[in-house]
Amino acid sequence: MLFKNAFVFRTELRQFVFGGFHTENGRFADVFSGETQEDGRDLEETYVIPGLVDAHTHGAVGADFSDGDLEGLTRMGTYLAENGITSFAPTSMTLPYGQLSAAFATALALKKERPGNCARCAGIHMEGPFFSEKKKGAQNAAYLKLPDFEAFRGLYDGCEGLIRIVDAAPELPGAAEFAGKAAGLCTVSAAHTDTSYQEAAAFYDAGASHLTHLFNAMPPLHHRNPGVIGAAAERENVTAELICDGQHVHPSAVRIAFSLFPDRICLISDALRCCGMPDGTYELGGQNVRLKGGIARLEDGTIAGAASNLYQDMCNAISFGIPVAQAIIAATLRPAEVLGVSEDTGSVSTGKYADFIVCDKDLALREVYLDGIKIV
After folding, report:
1. What CA–CA distance (Å, rounded) separates 302 from 289?
2. What three-state secondary structure class fits 124?
3. Which pLDDT value is given to residue 279?
4. CATH class in words for 52-337
């Protein structure tokens, strides 16, 4: 099918270009510039961006990945697709291995049996249980463990290698060794950590290449103790996640983050089951979370995950002063690369899945397409 007369975001050019594209068998068959007289769908000078890719999201519309419920995960994926997030990595919490295994099985089932109106499962983000107690945040301390590659490998094999990101705190005994081994299988990320600069440097030098929710659940950057942020920022192969819900990170710090990690920011939602739901009490990893006024907190007041989706966060980043092209890439291609799926998604490019969004000049969402088929 031909889609024409649109301003298409061309990731390789980092700008919108007037033109269109063909789709064939659910993929982009040709992306072109300029006008055409060929019959097709006239997009009437609207704007087209790639479907967003969320590399870190726990839940939405009452469902949580860690529930291990395929119906709930499908409902979550459908909500995401309807909001322009066409690929996602369901993200686990710090829980017993048996519960993680059950949840991971649902992700594998969704990947194999995805309904047409549901976002693609691009892989699993295993957040925990290899974390520091001091910086556990909303993670359940009862289930924290030291890095264990054999346990991780068992979970990895059990879901047929669908784990694409695994997190660990660099200061824990065996963390660097774990990073060296796990990096051969997926992206390894520093997270929920009170690490020193030296420990973080060793972790990255061993093979880690990512930083989970920059600024949150880690020591701040200090000029005499740069910690994990300093170690990550100075390594050009390290990408960093950023939550732009307006609650977790101040707009000024968002702008600083894009400067610290030039072209290496992955916008994420870190959304919980309360995303897309009214104020109330919800469950997270065996703990109660209270959503009030757009902020989700544990009963002790600790800020938990987020209540907004990635499309909202991308628009927030732009409103905070991030250039449009940078924000779009940070919500599309960059997370696709971290998840190892950029050959199939993350940009409007020939050969990739025809997952795209039609919006207005201000990126207000109008339509969403999966496999070239309109779902919204």
Report:
1. 9
2. strand
3. 92
4. alpha beta
Q: Which amino acid is at 123?
A: G
Separation of first and last alpha carbons in the chain: 18
Q: Collapsing DSSP states into helix, strand and coil, what is residue 326? A: helix
Say yes or no to pLDDT of 299 above 90.
Answer: no
C-alpha dihedral (239, 244, 249, 250), degrees to nearest 10 = 120
28, 351 contact by CB (below 8 A): yes
Nearest to 49 by CA among 1, 84, 75: 84
40 DSSP assignment:
S
pLDDT digits (tens, 9 = 90+) for 162-216: 999 999 999 999 999 999 999 999 999 999 999 999 999 999 999 999 999 999 9
Cis bond upstream, residue 129 (ω within 30): yes
Question: How is residue 194 written in tokens?
Answer: 């009170």
Q: Which residues are catalytic?
A: 270
Q: How far apart are CA 211 and CA 187, in angstroms?
A: 10
Strands 163-168 and 187-190: parallel
Burial grade of 98 (CB within 10 A; 0-12, 13-18, 19 or more): exposed
CA angle 203, 58, 142 (to 5 degrees): 65
Rounded CA separation 174/2 (Å): 54
Residue 91 and residue 58: Cα distance in Å, rounded?
A: 5
Running DSSP on this structure, what letter comes out for residue 51?
Answer: P
Q: How far apart are CA 245 and CA 374, in angstroms?
A: 27
The model carries a pTM of 0.96
- By DSSP bridging, strand 365-370 and strand 356-359 are antiparallel
Tell whether the model's pLDDT for residue 286 goes beyond 90: no
Measured CA to CA, the distance from residue 289 to residue 53 in angstroms comes to 25
Strand partners, 357: 49, 368
Residues, the chain:
376
The Cα–Cα gap between 3 and 22 comes to 6
- For the chain, the structural domain boundaries read 2-48+359-374, 52-337
Question: For the segment 90-120, what is each residue's pLDDT rounded down to a tens digit?
Answer: 999 999 999 999 999 999 999 999 888 999 9
Choose among 128, 129, 83, 107: nearest CA to 269. 83
